[in-house]
């Protein structure tokens, strides 16, 4: 007797990065390097461990479900009213909540492909129909084709900017035209998980540029530049209506007490975040340049990872890197995503890449 939905059998599972400890054990090495989950390698920000430790003393109590202090701090930092903010257990949870808040079964969620692997899972769990629009040959969103693919059933269109896993971004003129063209009854979700790594001034900050439009919602995370991947905090900036609906469908208490405390402490460390992002960006540019000697069509990245468009060679490249103790993220048939690590980790990866391509 089957108890679960048959359609889930067709759904690819979310693949988390492999454990470096397991790989090191398998290879008999002291340690392996994981460049597969787009984390920043410099440890928690100053003050975060202390804030979390202090919060744990109250952990027999429920957290503030309204995340009042955190929303107030985010509101002040990003220049929006707290009513327009929702927080969640990572921005991936908020993406799911947005879809739950907008789509009924059979409604369409439209997104570029390839993009963040959670989108199809989110669509399916909400009962929404996934509509995927292929990226351009340069691995970027094809916003014209995406706008043309909107139908009467479309409720949500996701623009991942910069795009995971290709690192490409859409620029101001294109995004302006796209947002103008999408009908007012369709929510445009701009997922800016990697915004802090953007250096191209022509890639717009969606909170500053579009969030005042009633049908735009912006997703941000504290997992990447802010170093809180393990504590799970993301936030959404949208209209009061959309943010309020998301707060309604959110799993109760899903921004934990430690997550709230850590986020409040991290937000005091913006100068350090900028310093760390600058290190990542310098390494991103160095790694991109080195990789282009092996693979000329590595696209420009505005994020903290690079994309190797290896097509059917992706899995073999990933396996070759693992044999050298470096975990990367292959998407077979498409390419390989490699997170920027410390300079030493990146050197290990580049050495592995040379043998993998040879
Ligand atoms: N959006 C994108 C584009 C991502 O790449 C990720 C993380 N891989 C997320 C959202 C979710 O991040 P988190 O849930 O850790 O906030």
UniProtKB/TrEMBL annotation:
GO molecular-function terms, A-Z: aromatic-amino-acid transaminase activity; histidinol-phosphate transaminase activity; pyridoxal phosphate binding
Catalysed transformations (reactions): an aromatic L-alpha-amino acid + 2-oxoglutarate = an aromatic oxo-acid + L-glutamate
Cofactors named for this entry: pyridoxal 5'-phosphate
Top EC class, one word: transferase
CDD domains documented for this protein: AAT_like
Superkingdom of the source species: Bacteria
EC numbers for this chain: 2.6.1.57
Signal peptide as annotated in the record: none
Presence of keyword Transferase: yes
Residues bearing the modification N6-(pyridoxal phosphate)lysine: 224
SUPFAM superfamilies: PLP-dependent transferases (SSF53383)
Keywords: Aminotransferase, Pyridoxal phosphate, Transferase
Residues of the Aminotransferase class I/classII large domain: 32-350
Keyword Transferase: yes
Subunit structure: Homodimer.
PANTHER family: HISTIDINOL-PHOSPHATE AMINOTRANSFERASE (PTHR43643:SF3), HISTIDINOL-PHOSPHATE AMINOTRANSFERASE 2 (PTHR43643)
Membership in a protein family: Belongs to the class-II pyridoxal-phosphate-dependent aminotransferase family.
NCBIfam families (UniProt xref): hisC (TIGR01141), PRK03321.1 (NF002878)
Protein name, as recorded: Aromatic amino acid aminotransferase
């Amino acid at each position: 007797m089957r108890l679960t939905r048959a359609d889930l059998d067709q759904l690819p599972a979310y693949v988390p990065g492999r454990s470096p400890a397991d790989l090191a054990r398998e290879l008999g090495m002291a340690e392996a390097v994981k460049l597969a989950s787009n984390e920043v390698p410099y440890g928690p920000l100053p003050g975060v461990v202390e804030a979390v430790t202090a919060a744990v003393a109250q952990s027999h109590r429920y957290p503030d479900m309204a995340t009042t202090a955190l929303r107030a701090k985010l509101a002040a930092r990003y220049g929006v009213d707290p009513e327009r903010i929702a927080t969640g257990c990572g921005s991936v949870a908020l993406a799911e909540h947005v879809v739950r808040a907008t789509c009924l079964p059979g409604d369409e969620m439209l997104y570029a492909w390839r993009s963040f692997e959670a989108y199809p899972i989110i669509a399916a769990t909400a009962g929404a129909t996934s509509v995927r629009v292929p990226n351009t040959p340069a691995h970027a969103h094809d916003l014209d084709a995406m706008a043309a693919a909107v139908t009467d059933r479309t409720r949500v269109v996701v623009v991942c900017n910069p795009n995971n896993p290709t690192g490409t971004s859409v620029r101001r003129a294109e995004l302006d035209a796209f947002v103008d063209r999408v009908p007012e009854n369709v929510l445009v979700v701009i997922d800016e998980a990697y915004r802090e790594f953007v250096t191209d001034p022509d890639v717009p900050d969606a909170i500053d540029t579009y969030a005042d439009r009633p049908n735009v919602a912006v997703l941000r995370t504290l997992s990447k530049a802010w170093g809180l991947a393990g504590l799970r905090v993301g936030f959404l900036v949208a209209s009061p209506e959309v943010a309020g609906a998301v707060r309604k469908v959110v799993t109760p208490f899903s921004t934990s007490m430690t997550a709230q405390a850590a986020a409040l402490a991290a937000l005091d460390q913006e100068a350090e975040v900028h310093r760390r992002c600058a290190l990542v960006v310098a390494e991103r540019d160095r790694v991109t340049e080195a990789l282009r000697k092996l693979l000329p069509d590595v696209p420009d990245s505005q994020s903290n990872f690079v994309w190797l468009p290896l097509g059917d060679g992706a899995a073999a490249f990933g396996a070759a890197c693992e044999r050298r103790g470096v975990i990367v993220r292959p998407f077979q048939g498409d390419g390989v995503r490699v997170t920027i690590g410390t300079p030493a980790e990146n050197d290990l990866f580049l050495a592995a890449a040379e043998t993998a391509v040879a």
